Amino acid sequence: MTQKQRSVAIIEVAPRDGLQNEKVMVSTEDKISLVERSFTAGFRHVEAVSFANPKRVPQMADAEGVMAGLAPRYADRNLIGLALNARGAERAVAAKCSQINYVVVASETFANRNQNASVADLVNGTRDVAAIARAAGLPMSISLATSFGCPFDGEVSVERVMGIVEELLKSDPFDIGFADTIGCAVPPQVTEMLARARALSTSIKWRCHFHDTRNTGVANAIAAVEAGVDFLDASTGGVGGCPFAPAATGNVATEDLVYVFNRMGIETGLDIDTLLDTSRWLSGVLGKPLPSALGRAGVFPARAA
Questions:
Q1: Model confidence over 234-260: pLDDT tens digits?
Q2: What mean pLDDT is reported for the chain?
Q3: Residue 256 to residues 35, 219, 227: CA-CA distances in angstroms?
Q4: Are the CB atoms for 152 and 110 separated by under 8 Å?
Q5: Using H for helix, E for strand and C for coil, what is the string for the chain?
Q6: What's the pLDDT score for residue 244?
Q7: Are 106 and 142 in contact (CB under 8 A)?
Q8: Is 235:13 a contact under the CB 8 Å cutoff?
Q9: Is the pLDDT score of 305 beyond 70?
Q10: Mapping DSSP to helix (H, G, I), strand (E, B) and coil, where does residue 66 land?
Q11: Half-sphere exposure of 130 (CA within 13 A, CB side)
């Protein structure tokens, strides 16, 4: 982090990545409310829905309904829709998403299980999704899953990831995000990944998406900010997990990141009390305690009663 960089933009992903692995089916109305609460907390960017096959990810079957309840009222906010293929991108455009997030995978076995395709197929598919986004006048972001490790193939080298990134840059995306899908990364890997990425391009934005499976999410996020990352994904309450990753646990919690960045003097533009209130509400919707550390311990110094 340079001395000039005293802020970071966080993208709220609880409505999509947070909910997709939950067994309790969340109503369309509650999904809309979660996005609304996120906007109230100060978010400008929310990954609201996924246009996955509803048979494989039933929690996201109402993506069009969620967008119908949001798009007409939030033209000034960025409602991101995740797409796994060109058909998903077409659905995102029709549903009036303001950005398409396309998923590429860095490891072969996970690519096959997640999208029933090879890594080469997914990289080639970037061109089709980019063309759809461009025709609709929308930015396309790319999430590169298993950037730091794969539950089936093991270690994923930074050289392999950078080779894929070089191909992805040809589609001129708005941003590329390195996703620690199984929460195996450690800070030095994050630092190296972003340094290598910036050596390839200084014109696009770089994003990181951390899971807290092994309690490294906050440390990795700090390392990413110190390395000059443009965006961080996070999930209110720390909910989340990939349906195709064994023993997947939640994303790094939004409120945990905001707490540590507030204490470091790094601006996020987000209201921590609203985030905590949303986390408590979401805990009630899901009927269980959420992983967020701040939700258990509270803000320090403690608020006056």
A1: 999 999 877 666 666 789 999 999 999
A2: 94
A3: 19, 11, 19
A4: yes
A5: CCCCCCECEEEECHHHHHCCCCCCCCCHHHHHHHHHHHHHHCCCEEEEEECCCCCCCHHHCCHHHHHHHHHHHCCCCEEEEEECCHHHHHHHHHCCCCEEEEEEECCHHHHHHHHCCCHHHHHHHHHHHHHHHHHHCCCEEEEEECCCCECCCECCCHHHHHHHHHHHHHHCCCEEEEEECCCCCCHHHHHHHHHHHHHHCCCCEEEEEEECCCCCHHHHHHHHHHCCCCEEEEEHHHCCCCCCCCCCCCECEHHHHHHHHHHHCCECCCCHHHHHHHHHHHHHHHCCCCCCHHHHHCCCCCCCC
A6: 64
A7: no
A8: yes
A9: no
A10: helix
A11: 19
Number of H helices, E strands in the chain: 11, 8
Q: Is the pLDDT of residue 103 over 50?
A: yes
Query: Residue-wise over 87-114: b if at least 16 C-beta within 10 A, else e?
Result: ebbbbbbebbbbbbbbbbbbbbebbbbb
User: Residue 114 — very low, low, confident or very high, per pLDDT cuts 50/70/90?
Assistant: confident
Residues annotated as part of the active site: 242
All domains in the chain, ordered by first residue: 9-297 (3.20.20.70)
Q: Across residues 151-179, what is the average pLDDT?
A: 97
